[in-house]
Amino acid sequence: MVIAEDLRPERSWNANLNYVRKFFPKRAGFIGLDASAFFTWFSNQIIPDYDTNPDQIIYANLDGHAVSSGLSLNLDFNFLSGLKIIAGATAMRVYRVEDGEQLPQLFAPALSGTWAVTYPVAKWGLTLDYTGNLKSPMHLPVLPNDFRPERSPWFAIHNVQATWRPAQTFRVLETWKVSAPKTWKVLSDLELYLGVKNIFGFYPREEVILRTFDPFDKRVDVDNPNGYTFDPTYNYAPIQRQRVLAGMRWVLR
Predict the structure, then answer these.
(1) CB of 192 within 8 A of CB of 178?
(2) Which of 33, 44, 225, 247 qualifies as a FRET site for 178, CA 20 to 30 Å off?
C-alpha cells in the first residue's frame, strides 16, 4: 500500500430528497414505503489506484471530481398473521472525472437489491427467515492482458434460517395435558437455530484471487507468459458455496 502524497481531506456537497408513507389496508396490518433520491459531488476524493502497479494499491487525491447519484426504494409489509416482508432496491450512477475523462467507479453496481421474509409459527415457537441480495454487473480491477472480464455477472445470494424457542412448544404440550419437563422454565430464554447461507451455491466463475499458489510473486517468471502476479483485488462475491450453520442462543437475565 502506497500513500503517494500528503492526502487532503475529502469534501462533498450532498442533496437528498426523501419520501416516507405508511398505508393501513383493512385486515392486512400495514405497509411502509420509503423512497429517496440522492446526489453527492466529491472533491479531493481519495481514490485507490489498482492499475498503475499490479503489486501496489496507490492512494492519492483525485485530480478532478466524482459524482454519486441514484434512487432507492424500500417497502415494508407487515401482516396481521405475523408475516413480514422487507424489500429494497437501489439504482446508482457512480463515476469520477479526471483529466476531462469520465471513468466508472470500481465495485459499484448500477443496481442492487435486498430482501428479507420472516414468518413466525408462534404456536410452536418457530421463526422462519429467508433473506437475500441481488447485484448487477460492476466494474472490477484487472491486470494487463487479464483473461478475466472487466465486469462481474449478475448474481444473487440466498439464505434461509429456522429458529426454535422450545419453551413455547412446552407450553403448547401443557395445554394438551402432556407432561412437559420441569426444566422448561430454565429453557424459557433458550433459542436453537439452523440455517444455510448461499443456499443455491453461487460461486464466481473467474479466479477472483489470482495465483494463490504464489502469494509473494517468487515464481512470476516461471511458466507465466503474461506476467501475472498475485492479485486478491478482483473479489466481488463470496468465494464459499453453501454453508450450514447451527447454534444456540441463551439470554441471561
Answers:
(1) no
(2) 247
Would strands 58-61 and 2-3 be described as parallel, antiparallel, or unpaired?
Answer: parallel
Nearest to 234 by CA among 209, 203, 205: 209
Q: Are the C-beta atoms of residues 40 and 96 closer than 8 Å to each other?
A: no
Q: For residues 47 and 54, give the distance between their C-alpha atoms in angstroms, rounded to a whole number.
A: 15
Summarize pLDDT for 142-161 with one digit per residue, the tens: 888 889 999 999 999 999 99
114-147 pLDDT tens trace: 999 999 988 778 899 999 999 999 999 888 888 9
